[in-house]
Design a protein that fits this description.
With 528 residues, this protein is α/β, with parallel strands linked by helices. The protein has helices spanning 30-39, 81-95, 128-140, 165-168, 203-215, 231-236, 265-281, 297-301, 303-312, 317-334, 365-376, 386-389, 400-404, 434-453, 461-470, 472-477, 485-488, 494-498, 510-527; strands at residues 9-18, 23-27, 50-56, 65-70, 73-78, 100-108, 114-120, 145-149, 151-152, 155-156, 219-223, 286-288, 338-342, 357-360, 380-383, 419-426. The chain is globular and about 75 Å long. Zinc ion is lined by residues 242, 261, 263, 299, 302, 304-305.
Length: 528
Amino acid sequence: MNLIPMPQALQKRDGCLAWEGKVAPQGAFEQTQAYVRSVSAQTSDTGNAVAIRFEQDSSVAAQGYRLEVGADGARICASDEAGAFYAYMTLQQLRDGKDCVPYVTVSDAPKYAYRGFMLDCARHFWTIDKIKQILDVMAALKMNEFHWHLSEDQGWRAEIKKYPLLTEKGSIRNGTQVSPRDSAPDSARVKDAEYGRGLYYTQEQMREIVAYAAQRHIEVIPEIDMPGHMVAAIACYPELSCRGEATEVSPKWGVLDNICCCGKEDVYRFAKDVIDELVEIFPGRFFHIGGDEVPKKRWKECPACQKKIRELGLKDENALQGYFNNQIAEYLRSKGKRMIAWNEALDARENLSRDVVAQWWVHHSAADRAELGWMKDGGNCILSYVSNVYMDHSYAIRPLKKTYCFSHKTMRIRDDRNVIGMEIPMWTEYVRDEEKLDMLLYARLIAFAEACWTPIERRDYKQFETRLEAMRPYFARMRAAVCPQPLYRGKSLPWYTTSPGRWMSWKQNTSAEVDYMHALQAQDAERK
Ligand code: ACM
Ligand code: ZN
């Protein structure tokens, strides 16, 4: 059966239900019924419409469902709206491209409650329409958390009324780095001018995305990365930094020393003001504060930071970041939100509030100890291990199989009780247009969706690839351009594998993969 993610249990029977297009939803789960009506233009309550009966059944697991397709239509049992919605998504896949849906009984529930995707809209900007299209595909794949990376050294993308410069100035940069070692340069594809005109989301647009996502059972989690990766904000308000010097929105990628000064009360005020406006827009349970890659160089030289460390009796600069994290976590809690931070937040975890969720992306011995200890003490984690799930990495180095086979076991976690879920991030330093975004994004998103829905014991990569290939037309109808099979298998780039002198990083060589994709597409067109 061509279903992704693969359900827990599926029984097929002889026969199929004729389905011309009209549907008649009825019973429980008003919200899901409204969605079904909104996407089925020909909904009708009479005539030859297929009946879809929704029933509330509290014995079904959260987000799970039972779906029966038989001669008299489809029957869906769930305990919550999300489960009812996912049953309908399964039904859509079962009927895709056919006018007769096979008789089946499906029993299903996700491995993880949290199944996320992150999009970096700061390094490169993605339109509201593009985000909606990705949300459609996420919904079809039963993914339910959209982590929206809205601020960076290279651009601030969320309108904040109290600090208008953030978007007037902080969304504009004076250039866009073209990979210096890239033998297949992206220069032709770079539209630098775009980043000189101010690209950001108005509050109204952010609300539009939240509403669109909510209809699809996707929660939107805003991320404002603090106290590092803040150069765009510092360019607007230099007083936020230790030195208070004028600077510009960074045209270059990397981990920059110029960060917010956690010795200054203004920085805490700023962070809380930004949170005040965003929590009014994002009604979800979580708020992400980034917290990754925070070099402490400036703090070590800064009188204000050093004074704060002394006054608070803190051990060192890491503990100062821990103090900042706690202040923000507490503020978010007062707003009814739970804080998520990248796992560097655990560098000073001694006093960190236990309700903070750590998103574990780097794997090194210190992180392992902190993360594993954190979970042993009851702290929660989201798994996003860089070597398996980062979407901006080349398939030649990280073939799709690595993403598909990712699980808590990859990270040597024996007991995953405190893992609330997994998330796949799309960083966009070297991703400059939608074609490249799609190439990197869709195959991995599809593989990852199954990785967080289906336990590792029941996954089968070979069989997954067969389903993925068979479902190309289904994804194409959603405008999800899945890259060619030889590419996602990592068979590209002979020059990369054979010439160490031309080694390009896993991020940079993806532009060569675009060229490889074009070559494959040209071959394909010729064959046809
Ligand atoms: C990260 O990749 N810096 C979270
Ligand atoms: Zn400072």
